[in-house]
Amino acid sequence: MVAQLGLPRSEWEAHPNYPHNVLLLGSHRNFRAMSRQLVAHAEASVGASSILSNFSWWKSAMRSHEHYEEAKLYPYLQRRWGLDCELLVAGHEALTIADAAVRAARGAELTRALEEHHATLIEHLEAEEALVIPALLALSRDEFEDYTRGR
User: Fold this and answer.
1) CA dihedral 134, 97, 116, 42 (to 10 degrees)
2) Packing angle between helix 74-81 and helix 109-137, nearest 10 degrees?
């Protein structure tokens, strides 16, 4: 099973355990879409207060997601596979810094700050998926059930 930790992205969907991982990947797909939408709204000069309101709402959901990953997912993968998830935690920290830059931006700076946040998000999600999804796919169904049920 350990050999599957290097499973390329192109083979994920064919893996029998793939359906168990669509929630995480779906969340990431939604994060990418929301981030692109916020950048597009800023480029279209939609009101900054509306953009920042939507950004704040979205980021609160992302914080819950990040907390779950850092409190449950990453430690589990470190114990089970010996994976080093420090780069992923650093990605969350980089997103926190990018978040602060968006909130502090004024005028035309908002578009640039959202673009930088988007680039940071994409970089983090790509790194996270490349490490996490193959490790989750390599779990037996029983192990995956135990993990999701907190056993």
Assistant:
1) 120
2) 40
Which three-class secondary structure state does DSSP give residue 150?
Answer: coil
* 3 state SS of 17: coil
Closest CA to 88 of 101, 80, 78: 78
Q: What's the start-to-end Cα distance of the chain, in Å?
A: 21
The tokens for 2 are: 């350990």
- Indicate the pTM of the whole model: 0.90
Tokens of 49: 């207060």
Render pLDDT for 20-74 as a digit per residue (tens, 0 to 9).
Answer: 777 888 899 999 999 999 999 999 999 999 999 999 999 999 999 999 999 999 9
Map tokens 């959901």 to a residue: 61
Using the CB atoms, write b or e for 58-72: b if 16+ within 10 Å. Answer: bbeebeebbeebeee
How many angstroms separate the CA atoms of 97 and 82, rounded? 28
Question: Are 92 and 124 contacting, i.e. CB atoms less than 8 angstroms apart?
Answer: yes
User: pLDDT for 120-140, tens place per residue?
Assistant: 999 999 999 999 999 998 888
| CA dihedral of 149, 122, 77, 86, whole degrees rounded to 10 | -130
